[in-house]
């Protein structure tokens, strides 16, 4: 009772007085009453007596006013007497006493400050002079401070007569303030404040002390908070600390929010933060949300998990104690409840009416929330969700009743009203225990029915795309499919907080939804009638119709109840924009699945309908006209493209399952695919990757699988050249008022060639500055006139510029461009018959590309275009045949299975045969293309006459002597010199050479892509005259070394001869260990064949391959002995066959033996002429000579070539 009495007899410093002290406002101080002024005397007296730092005239005047103010107060004299004490000596005695106590272990035995007391502290204080009063108070204060230090944080309440006597409180306060002001190092104000919490009336002394040292306010508060408890309402010490800080903030309300921020920063004294919020009275009241709701919501819903846990613990611990009116938690709950009741519709009673007049009273009760209260109501709902879900608050019956009344109230049709209804609905799902009685359950059902009825009106009146109707529909679908975890995620995301909801707690709501409000048929029928979202994009958040349709498609509700959803999906895809909504691609995927896969095996016809071809064409045909692009966005076109490609891929992947069910869904026609600008759309998507999410990568994956000819590496590289920085800068420099040429002007310029070459060149150069998309209108004029460029005297620059324009167009419209180009380059004879190829024709037979005008083969810029198309169509043909086989194989197999029941092994046979036939057809196509291209590389008779007699290969002059080309009886240097002398007039830069290079580049890519093509072509063979070209021009031809041993093992002599000739060039080009081993094998095979071949076959075999031995020895000198031995054997075999004839062959055999044993002797020192001269024979003699004799002389000539080439190399 003493505390309460003293508290009533003492008054705290008012906020007005504290502000006056803080600002040293003398006028305000003069207006204070005597009791208020009495509390501030220690500071004012010191201010008047001490020498000031401020020597200004204004302060001198203020000081006079303060002295005049103090002159009439009697207590001033006692304070002046206190200030006249020797504080230095007092401080020394105090420090000695502290040391003494420290040595004595804190016992209060002897005291230097205070001698033996005759009476109690109060009487001693009353009868003492000022010095002794100071000593008494200082001794008592130091004792408390020391005990605080020794208590290790445990709270205690020190019974001190000096601080408890109501008669001497003012005098003790004066002494305390003077001591702290004069001895700040001995008595730090934070430590003094901490000590005062442990005595009665400590909060009053603390406020008085801080009021007399106003600058220390923040320092004292921060110190008290730092030393405070994490949960202040758990202990007496915490509650006293909270009360003291609360009094300090009432004294200085302008700093209350800063002190509250310190509380949150330190995570100490949560009750203080709430109390300060309850005490806070803002200057301008916020009509929307109260300070208490804002503060508690910020703690529980903020991003700092440490703060959230700390405050949640405060709520949980506070509930465990009995309800106390003094508890800060119960004060907070009461205030929140008052705010909740204040915004409830006034006509709503707090109890559900009786059954008799329920409809009337309820309808009259739903007057609805006032518009200005909706935002506040939403904030309160979220706060109660956080308190109950995160902090574990258990609402009282009164709180639960009022919450339910608020949640089932009807807001106005505004965006905030839509948000409020969504929050209320999610709170019902999160905390179904709020509905406990049948009356409350009936109230909730009526409210849900009202939501369904008013949803469309709210959406239209509020002007929002995401309404609560979609959420209701979505929850109903989740309940029907028993996806309770999805409902929990939906509730948490709507409320914006993670709440632990047990799935079992939703059982009552599930029953209400699935049986009373939303049956599955109602859900399905309602979903189709929901309007699509206009301009759907990722910028529209919330739960939309697309979420509902997606879930219904997943659960196959539409097919179960035979509801068509195709039109809704098509309309929604047409109403899309960037950035793309994340739900669109999953929607398309699940829709495609619902088209192809029946809902159940019992009812295989229960599928959705695909989008029709005409609807698809409507989207893409409009893109050709200027107004069409505005009608359908690029997002719509890309999504429809994704739908078609994904549909076709899934159809192929599902053929086996569909065949088992005897179903064959219709595939989209090739004519439709030809009208869709696939490459153009993908190119557009590439520049919008950030806005399209994963759509661009998904399209690329589908293209690489189904349209490999649109994903050529060369095209990607070419696109960089067309869309790179340099072309962009050139287009930026193009003036806007530049001359624009029409398609007819371009066509006329082509027709008047060659006289119109300058004008045509100007038009073409202008077109190179346009973007590929802007070139599309000129595509037909460019391709249709290609044949005109094959005429003589057309400048090369025009051809190269046309090639550049064609490659640019190829990046946006490749398939249509290829068809136009192939038709334009047909021979003139075909043009007369007006045969026009289609895309399908070219995919079935890619070799049509090579059936062009023969002049194209000697026009490098156009040949480059033809080769590009050929490569693309070969890839397209592979994909086409693969799809065709996949489409028909499983159905054919199914029919075979039905027709061949009981015959083991029959069903699998056709499938294997079809696959083999497909592979054989593809191999035949590829090898035929390669053979045709190799034939193109051969010079015509006219070109041979122009280029010279010894130019069978235009690459021979680069590589030196060509194996197999030296004439019988000629030496290596002479043969090589002959080639050099015969170099054509125009050098190596001819059209033929350029075409050969282009073809070799393509063959190199084909061999790398599929090495089997290289093997097949070389097993078929080709003219030996092309070997120097292919070996030198196709880098990947070295892979032939892998299968030459197999080629040598073939029974046909022609293939063996071709293998050895190929090997001779490979050894010269790639002098590798592998080449050496294969060359040894070839020499061994030649030796073996020598013993088994007949005379005629021996001549036809060895005559073309003997010169190859020169290349073997030139590439690998260690092979000389083996080659020489083989040559001698050949000579001996031939000599033995002609021994009976009258021919002088013995000297020849002797020469061969001599050449084998002493090859250096065949050439004179210093590089002179040979010691052994070959007999000079005319061509007629050789032609009429015996084959064996010819072979003998050829062997000798080969010996001489080997020796000459070896010595020349040295």
TrEMBL record:
Keywords: Nucleus. The keyword Transcription regulation does not apply. GO terms for cellular component: integrator complex. Belongs to the Integrator subunit 2 family. It is found in: Nucleus. Its main location: nucleus. Signal peptide: none annotated. Residues 958-983, 1160-1184 are annotated as: Disordered. This is Integrator complex subunit 2. It comes from Cyclopterus lumpus. One of its GO terms (biological process) is snRNA 3'-end processing. It comes from the Eukaryota. Pfam families: INTS2.
């Amino acid at each position: 009772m003493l505390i309460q009495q003293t508290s009533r007899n003492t008054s705290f410093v008012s906020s007005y007085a504290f502000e006056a002290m803080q600002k040293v406002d003398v006028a305000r101080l003069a207006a204070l009453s005597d009791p208020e002024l009495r509390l501030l005397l220690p500071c004012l007296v010191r201010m008047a007596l001490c020498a000031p730092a401020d020597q200004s005239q204004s302060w001198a005047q203020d000081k006079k006013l303060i002295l005049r103010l103090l002159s009439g107060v009697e207590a001033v004299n006692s304070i002046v007497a206190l200030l006249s004490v020797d504080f230095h000596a007092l401080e020394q005695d105090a420090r000695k006493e502290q040391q003494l106590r420290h040595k004595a272990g804190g016992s209060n035995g002897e005291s230097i400050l205070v001698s033996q007391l005759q009476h109690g502290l109060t009487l001693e204080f009353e009868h003492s002079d000022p010095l002794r009063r100071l000593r008494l108070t200082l001794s008592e204060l130091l004792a408390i401070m020391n005990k605080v230090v020794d208590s290790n944080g445990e709270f205690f309440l020190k019974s001190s007569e000096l601080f408890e006597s109501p008669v001497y409180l003012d005098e003790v306060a004066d002494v305390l303030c003077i001591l702290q002001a004069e001895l700040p190092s001995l008595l730090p104000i934070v430590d003094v404040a901490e000590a005062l919490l442990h005595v009665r009336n400590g909060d009053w002394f603390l406020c008085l002390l801080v009021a007399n040292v106003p600058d220390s306010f923040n320092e004292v508060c921060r110190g008290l908070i730092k030393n405070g408890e994490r949960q202040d309402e758990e202990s007496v010490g915490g509650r006293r600390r909270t009360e003291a800080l609360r009094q300090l903030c009432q004294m200085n309300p302008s700093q209350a929010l800063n002190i509250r921020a310190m509380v949150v920063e330190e995570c100490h004294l949560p009750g203080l933060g709430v109390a300060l919020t309850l005490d806070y009275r803002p200057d301008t009241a916020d009509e929307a949300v109260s300070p208490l709701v804002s503060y508690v919501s910020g703690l529980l819903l903020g991003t700092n998990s440490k703060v959230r846990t700390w405050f949640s613990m405060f709520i949980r611990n506070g509930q465990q104690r009995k309800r106390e009116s003094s508890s800060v938690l119960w004060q907070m709950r009461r205030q929140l409840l008052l705010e909740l009741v204040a915004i409830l519709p006034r006509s709503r009673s707090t109890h559900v009416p009786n059954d008799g007049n329920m409809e009337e009273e309820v309808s009259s009760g739903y007057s609805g929330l006032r518009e200005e209260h909706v935002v506040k109501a939403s904030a309160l709902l979220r706060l109660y969700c956080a308190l109950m879900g995160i902090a574990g608050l258990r609402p009282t019956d009164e709180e639960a009743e009022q919450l339910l009344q608020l949640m089932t109230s009807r807001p106005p049709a505004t965006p905030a009203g839509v948000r409020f209804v969504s929050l209320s609905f999610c709170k019902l799902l999160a905390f179904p225990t709020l509905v406990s009685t049948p009356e409350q359950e009936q109230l909730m059902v009526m409210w849900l029915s009202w939501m369904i009825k008013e949803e469309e009106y709210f959406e239209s009146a509020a002007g929002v795309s995401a309404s609560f109707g979609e959420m209701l529909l979505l929850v109903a679908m989740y309940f029907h499919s028993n996806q309770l975890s999805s409902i929990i995620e939906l509730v948490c995301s709507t409320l914006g907080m993670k709440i632990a909801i047990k799935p079992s707690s939703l059982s009552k709501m599930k029953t209400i939804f699935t049986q009373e409000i939303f049956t599955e048929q109602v859900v399905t029928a309602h979903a189709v009638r929901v309007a699509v979202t206009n301009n759907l994009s990722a910028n529209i958040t919330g739960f939309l119709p697309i979420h509902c349709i997606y879930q219904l498609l997943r659960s196959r509700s539409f097919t179960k109840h035979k509801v068509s959803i195709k039109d809704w999906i098509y309309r929604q895809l047409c109403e899309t924009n960037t950035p793309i909504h994340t739900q669109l691609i999953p929607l398309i995927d699940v829709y495609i699945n619902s088209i192809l896969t029946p809902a159940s095996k019992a009812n295989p016809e229960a599928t959705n309908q695909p989008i029709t071809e005409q609807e698809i064409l409507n989207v893409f045909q409009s893109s050709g006209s200027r107004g069409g692009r505005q009608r359908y966005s690029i997002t719509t076109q890309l999504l429809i493209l994704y739908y078609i490609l994904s549909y076709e891929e899934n159809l192929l992947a599902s053929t086996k399952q569909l065949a088992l069910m005897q179903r064959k869904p219709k595939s989209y026609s090739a004519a439709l695919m030809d009208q869709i600008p696939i490459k153009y759309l993908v190119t557009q998507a590439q520049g919008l990757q950030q806005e399209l999410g994963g759509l661009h990568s998904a399209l690329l994956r589908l293209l690489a699988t189904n349209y490999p000819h649109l994903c050529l590496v060369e095209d990607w590289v070419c696109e960089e050249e067309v869309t790179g920085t340099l072309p962009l800068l050139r287009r930026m420099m193009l003036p806007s008022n530049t001359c624009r040429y029409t398609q007819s002007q371009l066509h006329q310029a082509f027709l008047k060639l060659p006289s119109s070459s300058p004008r045509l060149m100007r038009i073409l150069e202008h077109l190179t500055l346009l973007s590929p998309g802007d070139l599309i209108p000129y595509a037909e004029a460019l391709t249709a006139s290609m044949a005109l460029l094959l005429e003589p005297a057309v400048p090369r620059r025009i051809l190269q510029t046309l090639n550049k324009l064609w490659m640019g167009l190829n990046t946006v419209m490749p398939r249509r461009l290829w068809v136009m180009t192939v038709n334009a380059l047909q021979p003139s004879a075909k043009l007369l018959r007006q045969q026009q190829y289609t895309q399908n024709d070219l995919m079935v037979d890619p070799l049509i590309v090579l059936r062009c005008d023969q002049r194209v083969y000697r026009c490098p810029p156009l040949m480059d275009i033809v080769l590009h198309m050929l490569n693309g169509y070969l890839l397209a043909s592979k994909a086409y045949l693969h799809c065709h086989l996949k489409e028909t194989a499983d159905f054919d197999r199914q029919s075979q299975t039905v027709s061949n029941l009981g015959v083991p092994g029959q069903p699998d046979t056709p499938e294997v045969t079809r696959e083999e036939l497909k592979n054989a057809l593809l191999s035949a196509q590829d090898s035929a293309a390669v053979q045709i291209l190799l034939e193109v590389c051969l010079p015509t008779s006219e070109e041979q006459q122009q280029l010279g007699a010894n130019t069978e290969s235009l690459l021979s002059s680069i590589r030196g002597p060509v194996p197999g080309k030296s004439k019988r009886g000629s030496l290596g240097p002479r043969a090589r010199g002959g080639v050099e002398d015969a170099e054509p007039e125009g050098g190596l830069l001819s059209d033929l050479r350029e075409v050969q290079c282009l073809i070799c580049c393509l063959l190199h890519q084909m061999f790398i892509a599929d090495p089997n093509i290289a093997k097949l072509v070389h097993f078929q063979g080709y003219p030996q005259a092309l070997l120097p070209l292919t070996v030198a021009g196709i880098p990947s031809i070295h892979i032939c070394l892998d299968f030459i041993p197999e080629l040598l093992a073939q029974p046909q002599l022609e293939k063996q001869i071709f293998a050895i000739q190929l090997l001779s060039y490979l050894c010269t080009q790639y002098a590798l260990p592998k080449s050496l081993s294969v060359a040894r094998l070839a020499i061994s095979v030649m030796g073996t064949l020598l013993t088994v071949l007949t005379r005629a076959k021996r001549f036809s075999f060895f005559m073309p391959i003997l010169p190859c031995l020169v290349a073997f020895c030139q590439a690998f000198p260690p092979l000389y002995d083996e080659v020489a031995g083989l040559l001698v054997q050949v000579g001996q075999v031939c000599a033995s066959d002609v021994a009976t004839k009258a021919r002088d062959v013995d000297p020849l055999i002797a020469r061969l033996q001599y050449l084998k044993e002493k090859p250096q002797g065949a050439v004179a020192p210093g590089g002179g002429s040979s010691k052994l001269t070959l007999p000079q024979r005319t061509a007629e003699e050789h032609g009429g000579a015996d084959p064996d004799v010819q072979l003998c002389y050829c062997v000798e000539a080969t010996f001489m070539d080997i020796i000459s080439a070896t010595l020349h190399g040295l």
